[in-house]
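Example 3.2
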Amino acid sequence: MMKFKKIVSLLLTVLMLAALAACASDTKKESSGENSSSSVLKEESKAESEETEITSFTLAYPADMQALGYTDPVVLDTPPKRIACMSTYPVMALYELGAPLIAVPSTSVLTYPDDLEAEILPGMMSDDFDLESVVSLEPDLVIMTTTNQDTYGATLEGLGIPVYYVAISSQTLPVYEVVKSQTQALVDAFSLDESSNAAGEALMGRFTELENRLEELKPTYEGKTVMVLVTSDPTTHYLQTENGTLGSMLAMLGFTNVYENDTAGMVSLDMENALEYDPDLLVFTGGLDQAGMEALVQETFDQNPDYWNSISAVANGDVICLPSAYVSTAGINILNNIQDLMDTIAAHYDK
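Structure, written as tokens:
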């Protein structure tokens, strides 16, 4: 009887173990099913995410360019990955937005950042420029000035390479407004993710910051007159209007240019007529650095002291010399130029 009880007990134990094993197997299968379902959902989510990333890219023209006939935007199936920017104007804005630059033009107007991973090619206006050097890089977007459209631009478009054109000046807008509108167009196109969105907001915020400072400072100089001279040697001077690069900056500060000409930004100085202008401030710039310009202007005065001292601004010491960065600008560099100009003029009048 005792032996029989042991056998029954053993059978019951075996049955219980089998039942537990079956439950465990079912649980594992159920869990495996859940994991499989979760895996499918993850793959679908990943596919949807990848599909979201592959979007069309549109680089539109600002209003001032549309007025010139550039109404059709550059539209690509995906954002460009190899941009050859052959105008200095957009380079730094594209750099700050994290755009993939593979080529930029050589220039003396600005110094490129050390971490700019782009090949520096001769500028399109240089005798050393070879369009094949651009084509060989296999760009999926080329940016260049309107002045090169009929030559290099037409060739690139004929090869099926998208080209976007920028202006470096305008007959109706100050240089600052041209740069700002171009930059906004680039920000609108290249704000593709959280990082570039933040960079774009910060970039346009610098324009707002500058304009706010200008509004505060402008009343200080309103009513003052200025004469702007671009000088290459002691006897060669060009008179710049408020349509010129430096002239437009000074107009933004509130100064009134003594010379008006709606058809030109710069004309050769008539030294006899210049005596009648009698500006409150005389500003020189040219193709040299700060020290070089100061030495050139001093040499100019020394060679003809009677003439120059007959201009009250010279006699009163109201003369400012500025380096070559003010002869022409390069895109968003104008923001730094104007900020520095405000500091320079403020320091002059605080003496």
